[in-house]
Amino acid sequence: MARSPYKILLRPVLTERAVALQGLMEPQYIFEVLVDSNKREIRTAVEKAFNVKVESVNTVRRQGKEGRFGYARVGRRPESKRAIVKLAAGQKIEFS
Fold first, then answer.
1. Range of 46's domain?
2. d(CA 92, CA 50)
3. Which of 5, 63, 78, 84 could disulfide-pair with 58, CB 3.0 to 4.6 Å?
4. Which of 39, 41, 24, 43 is nearest to 92 (CA)?
5. Is 91 exposed, middle or buried (0-12, 13-18, 19+ CB in 10 A)?
6. How confident is the model over 72-87, as pLDDT tens digits?
7. Under a CB-based contact definition with an 8 Å cutoff, are residues 11 and 83 in contact?
8. What pLDDT was estimated at residue 66?
């Protein structure tokens, strides 16, 4: 069963580096995605959600870190996954 593109793409990442990648000749966009999603699912989700042509998808898994939260309470941040999506020349995504 195919998942909705809006369930796979959690949020766009809008850091300084991510915004700089958007201004390139072949723009790249960074999205926070579900940890168990694969590159094919991410590609189809971006193409359906934003009506653009995706050239390539690279993924990065980020391990959750252990940390202290208050006095002597140790916890763990959740792990996450990011996708760097490269669009075809002339394509653009507008975030409002």
1. 5-65+72-87
2. 9
3. 84
4. 24
5. middle
6. 778 888 899 999 999 9
7. no
8. 85
